[in-house]
Amino acid sequence: MAYNIVVIAGSLRKDSFSLKIANALAKLAPSSLKLEVITPAGISFFNQDLEGAPPADWLAFREKLQKSDGVIFVTPEYNRAIPGVLKNAIDVASRPYGKSSFNGKPVGIISNSPGPLGGVSAAKTLQNILPGISGPILQQPEAYLNAVGDAFDAEGNLTKDSLKGVLQAYIDAFAAHVAKHHG
Description:
By secondary structure, the protein is an alpha/beta fold. It has helices at residues 17-28, 56-66, 84-93, 120-129, 161-182; strands spanning 3-9, 33-38, 70-76, 107-112, 143-145. The chain has 5 helices and 5 strands; from the N terminus they run βαβαβαβαβα.
């Protein structure tokens, strides 16, 4: 039996590095994991006034997460933090209070940037947001992927061997993390 993992690529751009990394991760995943890659596209803005009758897109997103066995965030860094669309998705999924769709789910965080810092501030933002609304966060290995601009070919396939090794080590560690918390 494979654990169902939702991978949230935190960018809306159709050729985003986050989406390419998430898709590469899905290809590298061991047979114990089945990864479904999604983006925050189509999730309407969180507004607490709507909680009594949540929009269908909120309910569908929450249900997808609730049915999963874990979540991996793959985020770019926008202005030293996560993109607003990713924060909105987290806000939608974490409500209503005390009923977060992330509760008890093992979580992974991968940040990325074409620059030298690898989106470390975005990852740290998620590390600040998620405790209290999620399950256990994978602590090691950390994944702050830098210089990702030349890591993919024109079809979006991962071609940078050094990045492939990092992603393989990460997804293998995440598989062990999920098994530990569901075993």
